[in-house]
Amino acid sequence: MSRQPYIRQMSKTTWYMRNQRYKVYVLRELTSFLVAFYTFLTIFALATLASDSPDRWNAFLASQQGMGMIIFHALALLYFLFFQTFPWFKLAPKAMPVQIGEKKLADSYIIIGHYVVWVVVSAFVLWLAGAF
Amino acid sequence: MGTRTLELEVMRYDPEKDKVPWFQTYSVPCNEDWVILDAINYVKDNLDTTLAYRWSCHMMVCGSCGMMINGEPSLTCKTFVRDLPDKVRVEPLENFPIERDLVVVLDDVMQKLHKVQPYIIRKDDPPPHDKEYIQSRGALAKFKQLTMCINCMCCYSACPQYGLNKDFIGPAALALAHRYNRDSRDQGKSDRLDILADHDGVWDCSFVGACSEVCPKHVDPAAAIQQMKVDGAMEFWKQKMGMPGDKS
User: Residue B193: which of B161, B220, B229 has the closest Cα?
Assistant: First the structure.
């Protein structure tokens, strides 16, 4: 009897169509486009500030206040929340388990801890920005 | 006890006759308390003796009977007929070459399991033969979950990274490495570091998390790999800052 194993190749272009789990994963990874966008936007904003020109800074602010940009930022925020923040906070206990004595700390403490830090940091940034 | 007829679509491949695998359908009268392995055994015993597949314990211990059941890698001894529709498709585990019918070639993962040095490594002298290494229950709890792996390879079958890149060490072998790295009796973390921190080690994992979702023993290889990434990053910074690390 001869061995002749049959090899099933995974398609490099359509592999994520195999199941729902892969599709959700790819959706999550696609948000890296938005991460890049916000990184460039922040760098651009800082460069505008550093140029020491109030006109250019005000023009930048105005460009972000059009209805189209507001809708874009709102959708991006929702996308970040549902595909980045919520899933990653849920997964956080996997990467950083805490063991006290013989018992593992319940995942919920680590997840809630992340949300608390998130709220505190957000409030600090808003305070720096003069929101309150 | 109620019975119902299951339409079992089984992937067949005979290396001496077939160019490509094909599906054969069997009508199997099943009891509601049967698992899919019972249905496959019924086929072998009553309908078609040529069907090739692996199984041994029928109780989630041996890890031999992992197959794709309606596209999901699972142990056939754990998957109940009552939880499935009347039509069930059984295929060999994805991401592995098919040896024959439902039997896959596991040589690659066997080599990978060996590669991560899954045994206790000691740098100092071993204790006298009449003594043992002391380990507290707390120290045992740090890795006990990882010892539950039965090498069924469902995780490799679920992992798209392994599907796309066969050099990736993969979930079970990395979880096994982590099991020994976390063992208080082991001193071999530095020996494993080069393999684990290599391009095909933990950093090839993009945290799809499918391995942990399909694991029948709740080993959670995805968590083990993320923890190793944290360990690896800490080690990198320790070396950068000239602090003594595992590699010293």
Answer: B229
Most B-contacting residue of A2, A6, A98 (CB-CB within 10 A), to test interface? A6
Residues A51 and A84 both lie in one domain:
no
Domains of chain B by start residue, with CATH? 3-104 (3.10.20.30), 107-240 (1.10.1060.10)
- Is A95 part of any domain? yes
Q: Give chain A's domain count.
A: 2
| pLDDT tens track for B190-238 | 899 888 888 899 999 999 999 999 999 999 999 999 999 998 888 889 8
Interface size A-B, in CB pairs within 8 Å, comes to: 80
Q: Are residues A43 and A87 in the same domain?
A: no
Residue range of the domain that includes A8: 1-65
Chain A contact set for B138 (CB, 8 A): 99, 101-102
Question: What is the complex's ipTM, to 2 decimals?
Answer: 0.87
**Chain A, window 93-122: residues with a beta carbon less than 8 angstroms from a chain B beta carbon:** 94-97, 99, 101-104
pLDDT at residue number A65: 92
Residue A120 lies inside a defined structural domain of this protein: yes
Q: What mean pLDDT do residues B63-91 have?
A: 97
Residue reference for tokens 């942990």: B212
Confidence check: pLDDT of B166 > 70? yes
